Amino acid sequence: MGIFGDGYSGAGEVLGGATDQLEHRRILVTGATGFIGGHVVELLHRVGSEVHAIARRAEPTVTFATPITWHHADLTDATATAEAVEAARPEVIVHLASLVKGARDAELLLPMFAANTASAVHLLDAARRFDVGRVLLAGSLEEPNEPGQLAASPYALSKAAAHLYGDYYRAATPVEVVNLQIFMVYGPAQLDETKLIPHVIRSLQAGEAPALSSGTRLVDWVYVGDVAEGIARACIGEAAEDPVPLGTGSLATVREVVETLVDLAGVEVEPRFGSVADRSREVEKVADIDATRRLLGWVPAVDLREGLAATLGWYGGV
Q1: Hey, how many other C-beta atoms are within 10 angstroms of the C-beta on 207?
Q2: For 207-228, what is each residue's pLDDT tens digit?
Q3: Would you identify the CATH topology of the domain 11-185+223-247+286-301?
Q4: 0.85 cut: is pTM over it?
């Protein structure tokens, strides 16, 4: 069993009629070894899609339970990207590969442009050249909503720029470009233990009080299995021009999430709220799930406490 595959035994029931449309469809996933990408790959395989993936390394860095046809390319290289897309000849590209850093430092502008903006443009142009029907671009909840609004971070800026290119390719070419607005994803197999929830779980397992910000930020937390289902549906659903939100439509503070984890773990640990400075320009935004329901027939199924319990269990509990 691969590390991502435990949550989808009922994938056909979850996706309903979408399963028939996904069966035998050739789908190319970038970022397949990442947190969201790994779950997407496993789910697509379980509903019968022919899954291809692009990786920078010759061998994937994680174990998969499913057969994947691998193509190797650095997406910042336009020629290598085009060669990989030509070899895969997908009907749909799911672009999840990205450099993710929340820091606000100007030194990140160029690396983020190369990894997130240029790579998306390379994929979009390869899709145009090789008759790919649809490209999904994964976006950030931190992207600006209003003209002239400052992006919260170089990461958010790079994603917003990629989506502007996506809008142009959708208008100027036959490629259906779907911009996904993905909210704060959590769940099993998030291997980056600097992220909030893995960090808190590992601290509790060690009997240590996690060092945290004030915890007052309100966040729309969405379970990774629900996000994978939404992405699968977006491969075959209506090709919307507006960003498609993948969130829950409700908010919980960082403090509430941490205190729920402490309660589920059954330990007497007092998290050190306020021992880390709050980050500047934090975005508080909630998903419009009514829009996503209309477009994809998708609603999140896993509530926050249930999802946190499943995540804690995947990491081995406390």
Answers
A1: 10
A2: 999 999 999 999 999 999 999 9
A3: Rossmann fold (3.40.50)
A4: yes
